[in-house]
Amino acid sequence: MSRATLRWKGEDSRERGFTLLEVLVSLAVLALVALAALSLQNRSAGALDSAIATTEATLLAREMMAESLLQGVPPIESSRGEFRDRGEGYRWQRSVEEAGHPGVRRITVRVIWESGGRERSVELVTFVAEGRGL
C-alpha cells in the first residue's frame, strides 16, 4: 500500500509560520512603541505635578493679596516669610511701594517654590488708591 500525503494547494515548507527574524523585528518595534508610551506617561505626570504646584501657589498668592487689601491701604514696606500652616514648601514676598501717582500704591505678592531643582514663582500685582477701600 502506498502512502499518500495530503497537501493544501500552495502550501510548502516555507509558508508555515514566521521566521525568527520577523519575530525579532516585530518585538523590537513593539518595545519602541512601549518605550515611547512610558516616556509620554512620565512627561504627563510631570506636567500634572507642575500644574498642581502652580495652582496652589496662585491660590496662596490670591489669599495673601486679599488679606493685604482687607487691611486698607498698607504702609510702604517689604516683607517675606514662609507659609507654615498651609502651603508647605512655599515662601512669600510682599512689597508695597509708591506707584508713581500721588496716593496710589502698588502691592506685589510673590509666592516662590522649588520644583525639579529650579525656583518657580507666581506674582500678583494690584494698585490701591488712598481713601478708596474695598
Topology readout:
Elements: H1 20-70, E1 77-82, E2 91-98, E3 104-115, E4 118-129
Antiparallel strand pairs: 1-2, 2-3, 3-4
Compact description:
The protein has 134 residues and is α+β, with helices and mostly antiparallel strands. The chain contains one helix and four strands. A four-stranded antiparallel sheet has the order 1-2-3-4.
Characterize the structure shown.
This protein has 134 residues and is α+β, with helices and mostly antiparallel strands. It has a single domain, classed as GSPII I/J protein-like (Pantoate--beta-alanine Ligase, Chain: A,domain 2, 2-Layer Sandwich), CATH 3.30.1300. It is built from 1 helix and 4 strands. The chain has one helix spanning 20-70; strands at residues 77-82, 91-98, 104-115, 118-129. It has a 4-stranded antiparallel sheet. A hairpin with a 2-residue loop joins strand 3 and strand 4. The protein is rod-shaped, with a radius of gyration of 33 Å. The mean pLDDT is 85.
